[in-house]
UniProtKB/TrEMBL annotation:
PANTHER family: LIPID KINASE YEGS (PTHR12358:SF106), SPHINGOSINE KINASE (PTHR12358). SUPFAM superfamilies: NAD kinase/diacylglycerol kinase-like. This is Lipid kinase YegS-like protein. Keywords: ATP-binding, Cytoplasm, Kinase, Lipid biosynthesis, Lipid metabolism, Magnesium, Metal-binding, Nucleotide-binding, Phospholipid biosynthesis, Phospholipid metabolism, Transferase. The lineage of its organism: Bacteria, Pseudomonadati, Pseudomonadota, Gammaproteobacteria, Pseudomonadales. Residues 1-129 form the DAGKc domain. GO terms for biological process: phospholipid biosynthetic process.
Length: 310
């Protein structure tokens, strides 16, 4: 079987992207057999991924934003990780790709086809998988309500503009959090459960997260008396601002109760729940990442003998 073959799943909006077309043609000239399928509506990415696995493709390329990446990753996990994943970042935020140091130009991104895949973790919330981060509270509402037109014009900055225009809606949520040797409850403004590090167009909610350590990085931003001031600290201070106002932990599973309901966003997929259970699915997805990716803990990589045995 020819291992230099992959199926590219391209978000429908990128079907006429000439830079992508040129990058794919260049890899074909280098001996790669690359088939291309485009999505048209919700569910297409998962369906095409399953078809690729049934057809024996050893690698699937996810060409789109964080939502496309989530859909393909979820389908690969559901199929037992039979194929590896390459990221072709073509979205607005590309939060996971940014944090992983995946190149944002198509030609450079497709060069990762030449690198060995790394087993990484995937997050799971009650059967829904996410690769990058689950966010909750005001930030997730901003992400969900940011228009596609605004993102086209302003890119990742659209999330900030939407947040600023919705300051009048800023309110806290109440939640009870439990994990191994961890318990916290109270009012909070924002929540990040990170496999990756950033969300919402580059906000580093979990700046030290790793994708192959078997745990989530949990970040809770409690609601202070000066709610607007706390939010401004987050916007202006970045990572350093976050350190001054957040509760953090590193946990393999997390249970949350939110009696009044909690708005959640799993890599672009909105949910609303009163009770939820998060767990790490350790090492279930093989992804082609740069060998120097800051999301990878080198000491947790499988040894050469173990990789050969797999």
């Amino acid at each position: 079987m020819n291992e230099r073959r992959a199926l590219v799943i391209l978000h429908g909006k990128q079907a006429q992207n000439e830079e992508v077309r040129a990058a794919i043609l260049a890899k074909r000239e280098q001996g790669w057999e690359l088939a291309v399928r485009t999505t048209w509506e919700g569910g297409d990415a998962q369906r095409i991924t399953k078809e690729a696995i049934d057809a024996g493709y050893p690698t699937v390329v996810a060409g789109g934003g964080d939502g496309t990446l989530r859909d393909v990753a979820e389908a690969l996990v559901a199929c037992g990780g039979k194929a590896s994943l390459v990221l072709l970042p073509l979205g607005t935020a590309n939060d996971f790709a940014h944090a992983a140091d995946v190149p944002l130009t198509p030609a450079e991104a497709l060069e990762l086809l030449e690198t060995p895949p790394t087993p990484i973790d995937v997050g799971d919330m009650d059967g829904h998988q996410f690769l990058n981060m689950a966010t909750g509270g005001f930030g997730s509402r901003v992400t969900a309500s940011t228009s596609e037109d605004l993102k086209k014009v302003l890119g990742a900055g659209a999330y900030l503009i939407t947040g600023l225009t919705r300051f009048s809606e800023l309110r806290s949520s109440f939640g009870r959090f439990r994990g191994p040797d961890f318990c916290w409850e109270g009012e909070f403004l924002a929540l990040g459960i990170g496999n990756g590090r950033t969300a919402g167009g580059g906000q580093a909610l979990c700046p030290n997260a790793l994708v192959n350590d078997g745990v989530f990085d949990l970040c809770i931003v409690p609601a202070a008396q000066d709610v607007v001031g706390t939010f401004r600290t987050l916007l202006n201070g970045g990572i350093h601002g976050l350190d001054t106002v957040s509760v953090t932990a590193r946990l393999p599973w997390i249970e949350i109760e939110a009696p009044e309901g909690l708005d959640l966003n799993l890599d672009g997929e909105p949910h609303q729940r009163t009770e939820m259970h998060f767990k790490v699915l350790a090492g279930v997805l093989r992804v082609h990442l740069p060998t120097t990716s800051p999301l990878i803990n080198p000491s947790a990589l499988p040894t050469e003998s173990a990789t050969t045995a797999l």
